[in-house]
Amino acid sequence: MPKKIALIFAGGTGSRMGNQGVPKQFLILRGKPIIVHTIEYFQKNPNIDEVIVCCVEEGIGYLKTQIEKFHLTKVSTVIPGGTSGQDSIYRLLVEARTHNDADSIVLIHDGVRPFINQHVINKNIASVEEFGTAITCTNCYETIITSPDGIKVNSIPYRKETYAAQAPQSFILGEILDAHEQMRKINPTYENIVDSCTLYHVLGKPVHMIEGNKGNIKVTYPEDFYSIQALFDYRDSQEIFGVNGNDEYFTSKN
Q: What is the β-pairing status of strands 105-110 and 163-172?
């Protein structure tokens, strides 16, 4: 049976947080760095066999101490991040391939998306097993506008046909690594390749969507951090009062 490996990338410095001292993945939330909350979901999932993490090089020592402190035993390796998000992912894929078979399933996830859930992780794995890919998405509730110059409206897609791609984005290890190798030959800096879904699409490879949970936001700006805090408070209140956690922020529809 193919291994299931979570690849967690957190190589950013958090410049858009307006924070010059601590990278956003190391901001403390509920007594733990954000990245620890993220890794814990994969640590607790019985289908995940291994976790590999990349982060800013100067933060590797600190992260390793946190991994030990919170008993994140599935983390096998922590490696330095690359020059961009996609370069970091490529490094993770190369590291995974050094000791795993090409048919392993990899779940690529942002270290600063600490509110994923087990249902979404399992749906990613099932989708890759059936279709070879899984792109976690949610419906867009606001009108989406395209505008090359940021001044004039170019087009307005039908809202019911628009989705926001999140994470995890999951693939067969050998296939996604080969896609990166192809892209690096024609576009070595990954210009305009914002995620793995975009990479596959540009290369003409089909991708399969699965529905994610709305609360799985990426901590990029200060308001995102406070939103995550509020979501943790809301989830805790549900648990205290015995409310089933079936809100779309915490689970996804079947």
A: antiparallel
- CA 89 vs CA 21, 101, 176: distances in Å: 24, 17, 10
CA distance 166 to 109: 9
Asked if pLDDT for residue 123 goes beyond 80, the answer is yes
Q: Is the distance from CB of 43 to CB of 74 less than 8 angstroms?
A: yes
Give dist(CA 50, CA 168) in Å, integer: 15
- In whole numbers, what is the pLDDT of the chain averaged over residues? 89
Question: pLDDT tens digit string along 91-104?
Answer: 999 999 999 999 99
Q: Which residue has the tokens 């020592």?
A: 61
Distance, in Å, from the CA atom of 109 to the CA atom of 164, rounded to the nearest integer, reads 15
The per-residue pLDDT for 241 is 54
SS3 of 58, please? helix
* Number of DSSP helices (H) and strands (E) in the chain, helices first: 7, 9
Question: How confident is the model over 173-215, as pLDDT tens digits?
Answer: 999 999 999 999 999 999 999 999 999 999 999 999 999 988 8
* Encoded tokens for 95: 């590291």
pLDDT over threshold 80, residue 64:
yes
Total number of residues shown for the chain: 254
The answer to whether 202 and 135 are in contact (CB under 8 A) is no
- The amino acid that residue 149 corresponds to is D
Alpha helices in the chain (DSSP H): 34-44, 60-69, 85-97, 118-131, 173-186, 196-202, 222-240
Instruction: List, in order, residues 6 or more apart from 241 with CB less than 8 Å away.
Output: none
Q: Which residues contact 157 (CB under 8 A, 6 or more apart)?
A: 144, 146
AA identity, residue 104: S
